[in-house]
Amino acid sequence: MHAGDTAWVLVSAALVLFMTPGLALFYGGMVRAKNVLSVLVQSFLAMGIVTVLWAVVGFTLAFSGGSAGRVIGNLAFAGLGGLHHGLPGFSALAVSPDAVMVFQMMFAVITAALLVGAAVDRMRVAGFAVLLVVWLLLVYVPIAHWVFSPTGWLAQLGVRDFAGGTVVEIDSGFSSLALALVLGCRRGWPREPMRPHSIPLTVLGAGILWFGWFGFNAGSALAANGSAVHAFVNTQLAAATGLLGWVLFEAVKDQVTTALGAVSGAVAGMVAITPCAGFVGPMPALLIGLVAGVVCPLAVQLKYRFRYDDSLDVLAVHGVGGLIGMVLLGVFASRSLDGGAPGLVSGGVHLFGVEVLAAVVTATYCFTVTYGLARLVQRFVGLRVTPEQEQQGLDISLHGENAYPAAAPGHLIPAGGEPG
Questions:
Q1: Does residue 341 contact residue 351 with C-beta atoms inside 8 Å?
Q2: CA-CA distance, 292 to 272, in Å (whole number)?
Q3: Helices (DSSP H) in 333-403: which residue ranges?
């Protein structure tokens, strides 16, 4: 076990965990004042539920082998036992299996928390908790095994995904679409404006996400090496051009440049570079971020055309951004960076085909299974709050708390907010 590599992976795991509170603030600022605490509670609930499930059974199903190893793992590492035997397919690993386990745990945590963004203002805590359990085991874990485990069938086809374009981004985006369709639209949407109550809170959350994303991408090298440095640089480059692309889109379309657009563009750029981070050069990284910064705001408009209420645009930013990253990885991947298959511009056709296949399979599987699971939870447990609870606000009706006590009736109300 290499001490420097282990230290880097553990620090990266902490950075990825820090992204979930950052995501909670990012989302929390975009909802109305009467629902901000519900977003924070649901995000932290994901941290608790996923951590326990991952340790008991999630990790072993995602990263062990077995007779059915191409599709799902076995129980060899259940309860985190047996890790001293090593992980199937990770022969050159310089860190302990425990370090890989906890690093991947944080990936599962934030992917689950991303689902909150599609369902704000109207989702029950109990229903969300039950959905998280079945979703993690039946949606996230299989995709993680197919792509991240060297024994998974997509990995064996030659699919390259450096840090989770499929497992995290496409998964969360299309699972969120399914959840939004089952929940239905918020009361009054899209007729009534539902403005963010605190843009500064969202900007703060975006800053934390940007900071944590270096652990997310560079940590996926699982070593403190040149690949980690390369992924770190590419993450910054794509975030910058994603930001500039979204701002340019707003300036051309609406003659404004908003803070919300700037931070959304940065996130879109980092989403798109996630599968590519260690596999493409710096100039392609700039282009990939720019494409995401322009295409993702276009994708936001789809929800108004097709009337699905993905409240905080998880599909448009993470689902579409992940698709962009996977496809452009198949175009720009460089053999020289890690010795893997090259992309189209380097004469490689096979990689482009398997990248597109992985993106389509992941989107289809995640949407279909999540939709079925959400329908079952809605029927037997209940996912959506009552109209009265939605009108009152989830902070008071579900949690008995108020994020802004001074905004109670008779006091000033934050811009865009409502009293609890």
A1: yes
A2: 6
A3: 335-338, 350-380, 387-392, 394-399
User: Does residue 407 lie in a domain region?
Assistant: no
Contact (CB, 8 A) for 415 and 142:
no
Helix, strand, or coil here: 191?
coil
Residues 6+ apart with CB under 8 A from 193: none
Residue 50 falls inside a structural domain: yes
d(CA 185, CA 402): 24
DSSP assignment of 215-249, as one string? HHHHGGGSSSSHHHHHHHHHHHHHHHHHHHHHHHH
Let me know if residue 279 belongs to a domain.
Answer: yes
Residues 6+ apart with CB under 8 A from 325: 165, 169, 271, 272, 273, 274, 275, 276, 288, 292
**Whole-angstrom distance between the N-terminal and C-terminal Cα of the chain?**
53
Q: What is the pLDDT of residues 262-307, one digit of tens each?
A: 999 999 999 999 999 999 999 999 999 999 999 999 999 999 999 9
pTM here?
0.95
Domain that holds residue 245: 8-73+96-397
